[in-house]
Design a protein that fits this description.
3 domains; Jelly Rolls; Immunoglobulin-like; 617 residues; 9-stranded mixed beta sheet; Rossmann fold; alpha+beta
Length: 617
């Protein structure tokens, strides 16, 4: 999940010997052949001159803090690496790779944790080390969808070429791995005292367990009950609310709740001296959110922000919650307990009838392209999805969805399936999807907050390029969309280029953003000062995204923007839901936003009721 508004981003320290960075390393002709297998590695590396092989083997035998390790793996090749880290250390790093995944394994090859999927962009990772003797890092190749074209429309030569542009498409198998921090746990005498205000026990079931423990009983029956019915523990409260108790079994010192309604990495309390840890919240019956637990996060620093980020080292799904989210609903694609999140859906949560692939609904064609921008000094993936029937549909009736954070809206949110289902129900016209990936080197945090250069890339390079590919629709049928910083960017790009974008679909947009020294909601002031523009808006925010800690909140600033737009005469559909900053909600609201902006009248009473129940439209 993106946490732009509450600072869980992981900045990566860069120490490069060349200003070109990984862009040059990923171009096949410039690759340094440093992929030499060591310590149980499988697969044969390409023959190297003796001096080069010795140098590469030395570099690959162990990872050195802040020294990038780069190279290229051949298909089927595996590279094992060791890192000198004490047991209990929080390790942070960064991988940029295409078709190369990074795992933590035991020395005998048992999988422990997937750190990075190797999707062609920078990916920051964090894990809790078991110690040098008990783990190894493993890089290995996986099949990856090839590029259909470069920015100029010429086929990409997957085997390499000598005249690649500066920001050429990544080459499959190329990687750059950097360990940025190894944070050893603090000695006992230096651990900051935990500040936890005890909450009264409100759960009837937990009160009954407390009474049993006081009489000398144990928690075995309680945990057997939780295994049968699943967690969290949900109990009645009043007509509009339920009491939700998140429970964890058997931590040593502490448990933190990631994704709690408070949004503040809520600590769980221990029930006496038992193995039951709990935190309870009174929540609206229509709440939906994802969450995870972080047991025994080590104390690694007195710096509050560094310690806050350490939660990612042990963050994992709820083992007793059968409703997982993030890779697949049935857990088939989940790699380990650290992969994905657990989902909470209360009894009155709006249905999400279009969010999963349906049997009998034909899929369209998904292509991966690479678009190089000399103006931005980088390149990025552009994914284009053409649903079934797009080519045959009336060009004057087609719609177009342009969506930021491509990997999230392909892997975490099944955007193509959402479009397929909406079209199958006759609720939207033939709609192509363009998913815009983020550039390397933390480009997201530079480009998505209002950035004239990036907005002009969208309006002056991307959209004309798409039109040349036959992917275009009139502005009134083109939707630009995103979540978090992506929602903010959508509103800004439309303001700067309304000739392309006549609709904005913003999910938890980060409208608190402002240039340094200015008050929050800078973008609302820009719309207030501009002429009225023919742009329609769908603005969605969660009730758990309010202001806290002296920071402006997404909930309040979204409402302020909506007020400004309505006063200007823009059509605005605004929604607040019982959720937080969360893809598990956004996958439903993406469909609702499309229905509000480009939807068609439902053709049956059943569909009419479905739209009303799901979207309030």
């Amino acid at each position: 999940m993106h946490e732009d508004h509450q600072a869980l981003s992981l900045p990566v320290m860069r120490h490069r010997s060349s200003g070109k960075g990984l862009r040059s390393l990923l171009v096949p002709s410039l690759l340094a052949a440093a992929s030499v297998g060591i310590a149980n590695s499988a697969g044969a590396a390409r023959p190297l001159p003796a001096d080069t092989a010795r140098s590469a083997a030395k570099a690959a035998s162990s990872l050195v803090l802040r020294e990038p390790l780069s190279g290229r793996l051949s298909p089927g090749q595996v590279l094992s690496l060791q890192l000198e880290a004490p047991a209990g250390a929080v390790v942070r790093g960064n991988l940029q790779a295409l078709g190369v995944v990074l795992d933590v394994q035991t020395p005998d090859g048992r999988h422990l944790r997937r750190l990075s999927q190797g999707e062609g962009v920078d990916h920051a990772f964090t894990w809790l080390s078991r110690g040098t003797a008990k783990e190894r890092l493993v890089l290995r190749t996986e099949n990856v969808q090839p590029y259909a074209s470069t920015a100029g429309g010429m086929p990409v030569v997957q085997g390499g070429h000598s005249d690649a542009p500066t920001h050429a498409a990544p080459s499959p198998g190329a990687y750059e791995l950097t360990i940025t921090q190894v944070l050893a746990p603090l000695a006992a005498g230096h651990v900051p005292a935990a500040e936890i205000e005890p909450e009264p026990l409100r759960s009837p079931r937990l009160k009954a367990l407390q009474a049993r423990l006081a009489q000398g009983g144990d928690s075995r029956g309680f945990w057997q009950e939780m295994e049968r019915q699943g967690t969290p523990l949900i109990e009645p409260w009043d007509a509009g609310h339920q009491l939700v108790s998140f429970v964890w079994r058997g931590a040593g010192q502490s448990v933190r709740l990631f994704g709690s309604p408070s949004g503040n990495h809520e600590p769980l309390q221990r029930l006496g001296s038992s193995d039951v840890w709990w935190a309870s919240f009174v929540m609206p019956r229509d709440a939906r959110l994802s969450y995870g637990f972080a047991p025994d996060v080590p104390a690694v620093s007195a710096d509050a922000m560094i310690q806050r980020r350490a939660i990612l080292s042990t963050l994992q799904r709820d083992p007793l919650n059968r409703q997982s989210w993030g890779r697949s609903a049935d857990l088939q694609a989940v790699q380990d307990r650290f992969d994905g999140r657990s989902a909470l859906t209360l009894s009155k949560a709006p249905p999400q009838p279009w969010s999963q692939p349906r049997a009998g609904v034909a899929a369209g064609q998904l292509q991966r392209h690479w678009l190089d921008s000399q103006a931005l000094g980088n390149g990025r993936d552009i994914w284009i999805y053409k649903p079934q029937g797009w080519q045959q549909s009336d060009a004057a009736q087609r719609s177009l969805l342009v969506l930021f954070d491509a990997q999230a809206y392909l892997r975490q949110v099944p955007t193509p399936a959402i479009i397929d289902n909406l079209m199958a129900d006759g609720l939207v016209p033939a709609t192509a999807v363009v998913l815009v990936a983020n550039g390397a080197d933390n480009a997201r945090s530079r480009e998505l907050p209002p950035n004239p250069g990036f907005a002009d890339f969208m309006g002056r390079q991307l959209m004309p390029w798409l039109k040349a590919q036959g992917i275009a629709a009139a502005a009134e049928r083109t939707v630009i969309a995103g979540s978090s910083f992506g929602g903010l960017a959508s509103s800004y790009v439309a303001l700067r280029h309304p000739q392309w974008f006549g609709n904005v679909l913003s999910l938890s947009g980060s409208y608190w953003w402002a240039p340094r020294g200015e008050s929050p909601n800078w973008l609302a002031r820009q719309y207030q000062q501009s002429p009225q523009l023919p742009i329609r808006f769908y603005l969605d925010a969660g009730i758990y995204e309010g202001a806290r800690g002296g920071q402006a909140g997404i909930r309040e600033t979204s409402q302020e923007l909506g007020d400004v737009l309505r006063a200007k005469g823009n059509k605005v559909v605004q929604r607040e839901h019982s959720t937080g900053h969360d893809y598990v909600h956004w996958q439903g609201s993406l469909a609702c936003g499309l229905l509000a902006l480009t939807g068609r009248e439902p053709s049956s009473e059943r569909l009419k009721q479905q739209v009303a129940q799901s979207c309030g439209l």
